[in-house]
Amino acid sequence: MTVIGELIKKAIDVYGSITSEPDPAKAQREVLKNLLEKARLTAFGKKHNFTQILNSDDIVKAFQQEVPVHDYDKMYGDWWHYLLEGHQNVTWPGGQRYFALSSGTTSNSKYIPVTDDMLDSIRKSGIQQVMSLKNFDLPGDFFEKQIMMLGSSVSLIEKDDHEEGEISGISAANLPTWFRGFYKPGVDIASIKDWDERVHRIAQEAPKWDIGSLSGIPSWIEMMLKEVISHNRLNTIHDIWPNLQVYTSGGVAFEPYRKSFEALLARPLIYIDTYLASEGYLATQKRPDTSSMALILDNGIFFEFVPFTNENMDEDGRVKQDATILSLAEAQENVDYVLLISTVSGTWRYMIGDTVMITDKQRSEIKITGRTKHFLNVVGEQLSVHQMNQAMQKLQDQYDIAIEEFVVAAVRKNGEYINKWFIGSNRPIDDQNVAASLDGELCELNKNYKVARTKSLKGVEAEVIPVEKFHRWSQEYKKLGGQTKIPRVMKEEDFLEFEQYIHSIA
């Protein structure tokens, strides 16, 4: 083990021993207070009486009573469009240097402000993640290896007074100088906008690098690894990067990808999950004996929790203004919540679109259970993406296959509703058997689904297709790489278009 690596590891251990996790309720109150103080003289802060809220006895309750709940469309329509027009001091002090672009799984497209304070917050959260590596028993020489961060292009779109790009590209473009020696594929390759060309260049340069860890969305990391292996005629990725030990996942649940992912490795990696969204760095896994992530409580983001029930949601999947909304101190374990955030980018009581479950309240640990609009409940199924992922894992074990992608919709057949699934697998299997197995597993996992199957949900169909067809659809209709994710649930109209595309390609 090298001396420098051991010194870095020792520094991380010492830092961890002299710091402690903050008291959750106290840390969150302090974050909210700081947010209100900094934004009180913005247009938003004046409109919603931030100064009065700060003088109240309970700023959390006063904040919840004064400030309405926003989704992206409301936040943009009422406020953020002024930022794109060049106005300042709208929802956060100052002007706007960056907008994060997102194709959006709850909206067609998004322009999300990324302030300098948010970039500082993301960097500090990254440091928290690095410091938590002390819990994973890594050797000293690991801390000298390079980090492959596969995100969107760092070549941002320049406008008159700001730049635009995906959050991973904006973050990579603002990496601290000291980190750039560790960062791969490097700015030159990361600036390539075409996904296929970028991955091909990575495969060409791969023999020159000593990668110790990977970071990125599972499906795109897997595609990159396959290209490196194929181009360099390898058996596994460890043939070229023998010191690869850690994979930091994010954006979607990793478990559905584990089987196909590990087929590319000579040995399993340490898997660390993170929650970096276009709106901020919300949580990171801090210990090895769980797959849950700890909310980052003291770094510019205030969290609220809405019980994910019909009473709290409208027909468009938005949180009602009179919904029951809880602080972290009030929320309970093992309940599905819609997550709201208020941040140093000027998002206020903002519905990020994810549902989460608190798995350990003392540690403030959560799991992402799905998307508010990727919750299948057309005829009473009440299926979450978390339950769908669990069922897919059972199918993988039962049929010894790797399922990397899937999508489902409630569609009408002969005047009645069925659930139709497309499942991306590494090899073909019988569609009817898969549909029966999936149906049985979902009945076991969800009593509401089981009841629906005896009433309004008249059938279940599945088509098992090569996963490459999902990627081709994504490339044509969305885009490859970066933060782009394939939806798990579609509306009937969108699903039928997807089905037509899948059947039209060989």
Automatic annotation (TrEMBL):
Coiled coil: none annotated. One of its GO terms (cellular component) is cytoplasm. It comes from the Bacteria. Pfam families: GH3, GH3_C, GH3_M. Residues 295-361 form the GH3 middle domain. GO terms for molecular function: acid-amino acid ligase activity. Residues 387-493 form the GH3 C-terminal domain. InterPro entries: GH3, GH3_C, GH3_M. PANTHER family: GH3 DOMAIN-CONTAINING PROTEIN. This is GH3 auxin-responsive promoter. It comes from Fibrisoma limi BUZ 3. The lineage of its organism: Bacteria, Pseudomonadati, Bacteroidota, Cytophagia, Cytophagales.
